[in-house]
């Protein structure tokens, strides 16, 4: 298998800052910015014809900023100053889709080679030196079609997961209404009357207590897996460290009470100590279903952020949460909702496992394809 450096295949042209028109007319032309590489939800236009005009046959790359390395193709318009176009020197020898998908597969590499202390910029040398397999246009199209199918399957599975999340949110609102406005007029009680609330504790300095005896549950552990349970943790602490923290039993409900993660709750599937970024809700009274409470808290995030005291980061202390009045529908209705949640989250877990398998498949196919190891005539995506 032969390879050719990208600099011999395409020429690179950087865009320029455009002047926008508020009301487009028949002379206006689309302006492509970084967000436009992913969607077409907010198109903008210009009447300035002095910029760099991209054609649908060009590949576009976000050159600067947090999204540097993002790839788009099949779009036309004047490109903004944070975008560069890659125009094929010999269009008859290369498929635009093939080059675009190839560059998407190199995203992590290009990100690792960016320059700039505060704002990342694509390294021209790293981009130029990328080696593209030299294969026929027909084989390029076969590979692009195969990888596009795999990518579409990934996108479909992600959409299915998103729809399950939306289903749970809409089901909660349909059954109970907005938990803050309480349009349905449910009885309310302060949360402190329905459970015991206490804050986690972090033994310090934490490095002195890292061990392998007691799971140490940090906020990040709640952002992995499903939206209901914490089933594992990456770090453990010693028994001495556990005496300086808050040890919870399996089945405990925890709530992230500070920082950017404020507002989400999880149920522990493990016994362990909790970081001081968590609040625990224990000894929940019989009139309150645990899963219902979890989803109520998740659906109240915006309100809870608004009432959090100002400071370097929002923080909801135990006093605020004890006084937080929650709606209290009949327990049978809460239980009915909790059963819906458990079934939906079980299905979502299956979808997430399937998504991981599809992403692994896509990664494996793309690596093999761009190393010249994929026999396109023998591979197929079901």
Model description:
By secondary structure, this protein is α+β, with helices and mostly antiparallel strands. It folds into two domains: about 5-135, Alpha-Beta Complex (Adenine-n6-DNA-methyltransferase TaqI, Chain A, domain 2), CATH 3.90.220.20; about 185-330, Adenine-n6-DNA-methyltransferase TaqI, Chain A, domain 2. About 35% of the residues lie in helices and about 20% in strands. It has helices at about 95-105, 105-110, 125-130, 135-175, 240-245, 290-300, 300-305, 320-325, 330-370; strands spanning about 5, 10-15, 30, 45, 55, 60, 70-75, 75-80, 85-90, 130-135, 190, 195-200, 210, 215, 230, 235, 245-250, 255, 265-270, 270-275, 280, 325. A five-stranded mixed β-sheet has the order 12-21-18-19-15. Strands 13-16-14-20-17 form a five-stranded mixed β-sheet. A four-stranded antiparallel β-sheet has the order 2-9-6-7, with helices on one face. Helix 4 (about 135-175) packs antiparallel against helix 9 (about 330-370). The longest helix is centred in the middle third of the chain and has 40 residues, at about 135-175. About 30% of the residues are buried.
List keywords for this structure.
single chain, 382 residues, alpha+beta, Adenine-n6-DNA-methyltransferase TaqI, Chain A, domain 2, five-stranded mixed beta sheet, 22 strands, 34% helix, 20% strand, disordered C terminus
